[in-house]
Amino acid sequence: MIRMRFDCPETAQPLASTLDDGHWPGREDTLVSLHCPKCSGLHSFRRAESILAIEPGERVPEAAGVV
Question: Distance between CA atoms of 2 and 21, rounded to whole angstroms?
Answer without folding.
Answer: 6
